[in-house]
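Subject: Flp pilus assembly protein TadD, contains TPR repeats structure
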Amino acid sequence: MRQFPQAILCIAGAVALSACDADEGQRVDRNFQGVNAIDGTGLNDVMLTVADPNESVDYFRRALKSDPDNIEHRRGLAKSLVRAKRASEAVAAWQRVVAHEEVTNADRVELADAMIRTGDWDRAEATLNEIPPTYETFERYKLEAMVADVNQEWQKADSFYEIALGLTTKPASVMNNWGYSKLTRGEYRDAERLFSDALRQDTTLFTAKNNLMLARAAQGDYTIPAIPMSQIERAELLHTLALAAIKKGEIETGKSLLRDAIETHPQHFEAASSSLEALERG
């Protein structure tokens, strides 16, 4: 019986401690919410740059459930869907951004970009036309040039590519796109020049190296110029030249280039081997 009051005191103390813990937990929650309010933008940036794209999508969807009108969360979701290569979903997400009262012209450009990724060129063009001409950015003119290319409006395309080049410090990808535009028009010498210019800006851009081979092959030149490349890249470029030669009916040249590609590649080059085998079978 003497221990009973002590037990009561212990229980009371435990209850008091629990109450203190609860109060402390509430204070921590409030403080943590404050930290979120301050650092949320920083966390958003992390999710948009270094996080796995699909994890980033899940993060922004959770954020939108608690704050559906937050335009930064809407933008974050749309950008994450583009990073995750989920273009159709990205279009819908960017449309929700554009419907927001705080929409910017940059958001409309992003919507047009997402539409182009789905192949919806008409709506992309309509979206770009809604943007005032005074809004001049690299991304806007890069897309304008691509749309003009699809419409075969070559003079407009050239003008937009030139403007885009003046608005970026990293012009390699634009030069490559412009070169490909010239290639499709049959302007092979200009295309070769632009691909070479792109590689001077970025020696790692393999697409430009491959396109350069196509431009040279179209002019009957099946040699690889002095550009930085790995052994595997050299083999792949020889393969591209071979296929271009075969397409033009120069079968023996194509066979020779395929043999060079197979010999150059440090591993078994299945694509080139299969092509050569098919040719030799007649």
